Amino acid sequence: MIEGPSRTVVFIGPRELEVRDEAIRHLGADDVALRTLYSGISAGTEMNVFRGVAPQWTKVQDPVTGLFEEGSTPQWTYPLVYGYAAVSRVAAVGGQVSSPQVGDLVFSYTPHRSRSVVAANDVVVLPPLNDLRVGVLVANLNTALNGVLDAHPFLGDTVVVSGLGVIGLIVVQLMRRSGVSLIVGVDTVERRRAAARQFGADVVLDPSTDAVAKRVRALTDNRGADIVVEVSGASTALHEAIRTAGYGGRVVVMSWYGGTFEGLSLAGEFHHNRPKVIASQVGGLNADLGPLWSMRRRMDFANELLVSLDLAPLLTHTVPVEDAARAYSLIDSADPDLIQCVLSYEDL
C-alpha cells in the first residue's frame, strides 16, 4: 500500500518549476494506487504549458460552445501540476477492482508525480516490455496513430513529415507500414533526420538549407505531396507544408502552436492549390472512420504498436525527477541530441 506524500513536479510560473511533496487522495473502491517508475515530458503540448503560452493561461474554453474566450479568471492558474504519460506498478487496488492487479505494469495519463491514485478504468495494462521506459510513449503513439488515421494514406502516395521529434518519427514508421510510395522527412536537426532514414524515410531534407516545396516537386514530377503531416509546431513550417502539398492535397496539422503566425500566408498556394488543411487532435476521432473505430480500439492498437515498432531509440535522455528543472531546460533549449526525455522515479 502507498503511504505518505508524492514527489511532484509543479509549475509555479512561466519556465519555472519546483519538485514538492504533495498529498494524494485516499484509495476508493474503484481506484488503483500507482507507484510511478517513469514519466515522459512532451516536447510539444507540455512545453507550451511550461512556457506559459498555452491559451488556457489567458482564456477559458466554454464547455458548451468550445470557444476560447477572454475571462476575468483564466482556465489555468499557478501552481499547476501537469503531465500525461506515466508508467507505473500497481501498488494497491480498491475493493471493487478486478483489473488491473497488484504488480501489473500500467500506463496512465497522470502528472509527473511519484505516486498517484486514479480510477481503475483510467489505466492501461501494458504488454511485457524489454525497456519499461518505452511505456511512456503510449500517449505519443495515440497522437501519431490519430494523425495517420486523419491523413488517410493511399497506396502509392507521397508523404512529407515535417518535424521529426517523437511523434514525427513514429508517423514515419506508421506511414512506411501503410504502403505509401515515398516518404520525405523534414527537420533542421541532423540526428533526427538520420533517425527518420533509419525508420523508413526515403529522403530527408533540412528546411534551413533545402527549399522543401521545390524539392518535393522535383521528386514528384511537379505534382507535390499527396499528404504533408506538420508536427514541428512552427508557423513557418505550416506555411511550407501548405506550399508543399499538391493540388487538392492534404495537410494534416498535428501541432499545438504557440506564439504568432507572421510566417504564415494564405494568399498564394493555399488559395490557388486548394489543399485540405485538417486539424488532428488526439481527443477525438475522424468521423469518416465510421462506427467501427472507437477511442478504445485506437488505444488497443497503440498498445500493440508499443511492442512492434522500433521505439527504444527515441528515448535519448533519462533524468531523475528531483532534477526535473534540468530536463525541462534541455527540451526548452532544443538540445540537438534530445528526442524524448524521461523522468525517473527509481529511488523514491
β-strand number: 18
Low-confidence stretches: none
Report the top-level CATH class of the largest domain: Alpha Beta
N-to-C order of helices and strands: EEEHEEEEEEEHEHEHEHEHEHEHEHE
The termini sit apart by: 14 Å
Helix fraction bin: 25-40%
Walk me through this protein's architecture:
With 348 residues, the chain is an alpha/beta fold. It has two domains: 6-137 and 311-344, Medium-chain alcohol dehydrogenases, catalytic domain (Quinone Oxidoreductase, Chain A, domain 1, Alpha-Beta Complex), CATH 3.90.180.10; 153-285, 3-Layer(aba) Sandwich (Rossmann fold). 26% of the residues lie in helices and 28% in strands. The protein is built from nine helices and 18 strands. Strands 3, 7, 8, 9, 10, 17 and 18 form a seven-stranded mixed β-sheet that branches. A six-stranded parallel β-sheet has the order 13-12-11-14-15-16, with helices on both faces. Helix 3 (166-178) runs parallel beside helix 4 (190-199). It is globular. The model has no long low-confidence stretch (mean pLDDT 94).
